[in-house]
Amino acid sequence: MKILLVGGTGTIGKRIYWRLQNKHELVTVGTKSGDVHMDMTDPHSIEELFNSVGKIDALVVAAGGAPMASLKELTQEHFYEGIRSKMMGQINLALIGQRYINAGGSITLTSGILADDPIAMGVILSTVNGAVNGFVVGAAGELFRQGIRINVVSPGVVEDSMEAIGGYFPGHNPVPMERVVNAYVKSIEGVRTGEIIRVF
Ligand SMILES: NC(=O)c1ccc[n+]([C@@H]2O[C@H](COP(=O)([O-])OP(=O)(O)OC[C@H]3O[C@@H](n4cnc5c(N)ncnc54)[C@H](OP(=O)(O)O)[C@@H]3O)[C@@H](O)[C@H]2O)c1
Question: What percentage of the chain carries pLDDT values higher than 70?
């Protein structure tokens, strides 16, 4: 399979890369890192990416962020930052990408535990993660008619990120990378569609 892996140099993305590199043809994407450069907050940049890469069998997105701050500090612009990146960045990749995915192929997006299990300072991530989950549920039926599957992996805080962000997640259980990567493999190589694959 030819797999376009957006965020393929990141904490989660590089582990997906390591697992799949010997089995599939992988093209990694980041703003500065990876085989091809693209900014998912810019739809023109996404169009250029697909024009240059051409037809693929699977699109995987393990990228997209949102600001973390207390509710009292948040403004509309903070929300738009998360919407442009983690929400519409992933949705635009799927919307534009559907024209480039071969029949029998798949799209795998990434949301996160905060859609279901909130923390202080995480309201924007709770919001956009919920939206990404909703997009996948809503889009699966029409994509099915095109012969394309779509799922979203919703990880808890991964082991490798505990040092950096674990302090924001009191009482959360770090998730082994092996389990998180398995969820992406299940989405890419399996048969499920329209699923929110929770790995908490
Ligand atoms: N880590 C966790 O514990 C955890 C838990 C739940 C959910 N998630 C979600 O999983 C996803 C990946 O998280 P991560 O921790 O692996 O992130 P990360 O380590 O920060 O890596 C982010 C990756 O995305 C690329 N990237 C960043 N901004 C981009 C943009 N605007 N356009 C295209 N590529 C971009 C980066 O490459 P460049 O630097 O070259 O741009 C890098 O490859 C995120 O959506 C995150 O919210 C993570």
Answer: 100
